[in-house]
Amino acid sequence: MDKSAFEERKTISAPMHASLRHDSAHKHVAGSADYIDDMPEPEGTLHAALGMSDRAHAEIVSMDLSAVRTAPGVVWVMTGADVPGHNDISPTGRHDEPVLAEGRVEFHGQPVFAVIAESREAARKAARLAKIEYRDLPHWTEVTDTLENGATLVTDPLTLSRGDADAALAASPRTISGEMRIGGQDHFYLEGHIALAIPGEDDDVTVWSSTQHPSEVQHMVGHALGVPSNAVTVQVRRMGGGFGGKETQSNQFAAIAAIAAKKLKRAVKFRPDRDEDMTTTGKRHDFLVAYETGFDEEGRIQAVKANYAARCGFSSDLSGPVTDRALFHADNAYFYPNVRLTSQPLKTNTVSNTAFRGFGGPQGMVGGERIIEEIAYALGKDPLEIRKANFYGEPGSDRVLTPYHQPVEDNIVARIVDELDHSSDYKARRRAIIDFNAKSRVIRKGIALTPVKFGISFTATWYNQAGALVHVYQDGSIHLNHGGTEMGQGLFTKVAQVLADAFQVDIATVKITATTTAKVPNTSATAASSGSDLNGMAAFDAARQIKERLVAFAAEKWGVSPDDVAFVPHHVRIGETLVPFADFIKQAYMARVQLSAAGFYKTPKIHWDRAKGMGSPFYYFAYGAAVSEVSIDTLTGEYQVDRVDILHDVGRSLNPAIDKGQVEGAFVQGMGWLTTEELWWDDKGRLRTHAPSTYKIPLASDRPKIFNVRLAEWSENAEPTIGRSKAVGEPPFMLAISVLEALSMAVASVADYRHCPRLDAPATPERVLMAVERLRGM
Amino acid sequence: MASPIHLELSRPQLLISSVVTSVVTGTAAEAATAQSPGAEMPQNSKVSMIVNDERHEIEVDNRTSLLDALREHLRLTGTKKGCDHGQCGACTVMVEGRRINSCLTLAVMHQGDEITTIEGLGEPGNLHPMQAAFVKHDGFQCGYCTPGQICSAVAVLEEIKAGIPSHVTSDITAAAPLTTTEIRERMSGNICRCGAYSNIMDAIVEVAGTRA
């Protein structure tokens, strides 16, 4: 058996921590990676389109769909009354979000009926023929309007409190209060929503859905059809981007396609047009933050009070946990000795806002950083000085408790910031910029260094579990399936690396397969940056089980101690004998060893008592920092991002190439959110930025001119995560706050940095110009 | 059959005036049936195109975009539909060597044209240098914009070589320089929501460098 030892290869192609390319790289560049719209359609596939409300808030007096029904190609017109189970897809069980509106519409563009036709064009054309009579009701689309008109909430608010904020404010040498508006953001995943439902026998249905949360689509389709979850199979191989926009928003399209497929006994495909996708699906929450802070002459914070009011839309969706997470990050990396934070998840007559990378955290953090900026301008100091004065302390000090009473025990923010401060030459550049601004009449520059501390884990504790299914076949090839979904973040590659590492085989030995509720049940959304943490560990656990059985088998057959059995590159070493992996597996099969395992993982340590606002909701924190330098034109408000330096912590990276891509991409997306991406509703409540023609996301030409991105290679997760890595999806998104603050500094220069410019987000050129004009008058 | 005024219409005008002009403009497509005044307009036309070096004859509704013709009639699904109105670039293909948003042009306008899609550039195992560079530099994340990015990138280098100026070209009478500023500007019609722009640029610059 050991005759092959001479051909032993000492390494495997892609262990953990290697910069392996994305598993679908060769297919992506050749156009042969199939998304759902690329799959061959079953014969006789029908297509769906939405009939949408053109009122923001109204009672439906009458609905005449006869012209829709008789339009060419139309097979069926479906209304809320046709939903066989529950006309409800509210993800948190509040029963406030219908599949199709009945009796009343609550936002402009709300789906009222669906047309099923022989072609997409026929369905879309017919959908325009409805005659719906409405009785208008008062509507509020803006946070401010809602606050002035009863401030109805869509879900319970949260309060986080520690110490006595009011008393500390009263006793503080200096205080400041202010308000900040923070805009929302459309996901603009390049692949829009899509569902393909294929009816099966009895009550079975299979749905291919572009979703980050197949288990929830399964539950919602079952709920709407009135069938148990075991009748519904949901599958997804890959998404063309998700960013949180496919966590709950896939439910509606999947439910309609599945209901129609079962009724008509034909496959139904539902791919909304881009404008309809943007109109009918939720976005990042806009916030109005009202803050008050007390501090001393050194800029050390004594107290913070803040209220985070959010535009949630007409239903709760995920607004409860999103607004909670805003509060969880209002402290960012700073210790607040006395603090009181409140959320106000407001009901508005707009599409129901949802998850988006950071999940409220970015908005919370922008508010917290505004407070730092206010203090710096009030004291005439560099904001970085204020930041350093307020960082959480070393573990064991009296400055480690968060507003939710979890101590920060893995704090590396000071080291990250110091390293970046030096490597980016921040201080000298800041001095040079102040000199430049003193001489430059029109063009002004700004620079800012902002840190990030982001809590990792779902705050819904039960979500922090995952499963994986691993088969080793007789020929030694390995089949990998887990509950996570691939949306470009490289999750499948990372988890395959975990398995390749565990069995010490080449990555090509591991076949990555589409996520399906039939293989791994009760999964959580691929969200909260948790994909690799959870699914990597679940796959690791499956490998562990199979390996334990293999070790027992080898020890018995070869008569060695289990300690003398080891998985080495491409082989199993049993005592002095080296057996090629595939040969070994064949022998194990012949000896009737079970070569398949279901792995499971649940995050340890975490707990959270929402009513008390106390607990340890996060397993650990991820850290990072960025320095951004910008130039603005004070005559037009136009600007450009000249240089960005980033140092970001991903623990011991599972795949540095993928992680660096995540950091860069997150930064660019965050920069878009805070600069050019502006959502705008008109007085009728109609979203007027419903296409890329009117909604501007960053382009190749918007990328910082100089963009230096490094991972903190010395970092290791203090907790025993998979390979001591850290989550990477969301934390670097908030590095872009440095762009907003650099723009702010450039604006502040026109009034000699005496006033905090209070630039709202997004800082569009118009807002920059208005801030310049406002400051010139001060 | 076609009046002179129709023949003078430019392609953008054709798009705006849609059905009638695209049918009667004999140079753009051969109408399926002859028509006389007052007769019902033919809805469909036969179009012959050379796609990826292969001649295809298809009959399409006159309003079918080139994108839908490629995806739904020829089953070439490598070309993606991102926004369907010419703003995202995911549907970029090359027509007669020049890039075009295939969602913004009608299939019937491409009678006899040579069209190259991502499938025609290369395939796994035999990749075009630009495709190989995108793999090497991780020039994508979710991959949905990638076919359009690559088709655009290949055409951009040809445009610069041909001396076609862009918005950032300072001297439009001289040859456009092969700079990253030029490439970034020219690639700005292709949105990447994952923000993989750094790696996309690295891939293009590498190919541009080896060809220069």
Automatic annotation (TrEMBL), chain A:
A molecular function (GO) held by this record is:
xanthine dehydrogenase activity
Q: What class of enzyme is it?
A: oxidoreductase
Question: EC no.?
Answer: 1.17.1.4
Keyword terms, alphabetized? Molybdenum, Oxidoreductase
Coiled-coil annotation reads: none
- UniProt KW Nucleotidyltransferase keyword: no
Q: Any idea where the Aldehyde oxidase/xanthine dehydrogenase a/b hammerhead domain is?
A: 30-138
Q: Does the keyword Oxidoreductase apply?
A: yes
Spell out the SMART domains in the cross-references: Ald_Xan_dh_C
Cited NCBIfam families? xanthine_xdhB
This chain's protein is named: Xanthine dehydrogenase molybdopterin binding subunit
Q: What is the lineage of its organism?
A: Bacteria, Pseudomonadati, Pseudomonadota, Alphaproteobacteria, Hyphomicrobiales
The gene designation is xdhB
From TrEMBL, chain B:
Query: Which residue numbers delimit the 2Fe-2S ferredoxin-type domain?
Result: 45-121
Please name the GO terms that the record assigns under molecular function.
Answer: carboxylate reductase activity
* Keyword presence, Acyltransferase: no
Where are the membrane-spanning stretches? none
The superkingdom of the source organism is Bacteria
EC top class, as a word: oxidoreductase
CDD domains assigned: fer2
Give the UniProt keywords, A-Z: Iron, Metal-binding, Oxidoreductase
Q: Which Pfam families match?
A: Fer2, Fer2_2
Annotated EC: 1.2.99.6
Protein's name in the database: Aldehyde dehydrogenase iron-sulfur subunit
Q: Which organism is it from?
A: Mycoplana rhizolycopersici
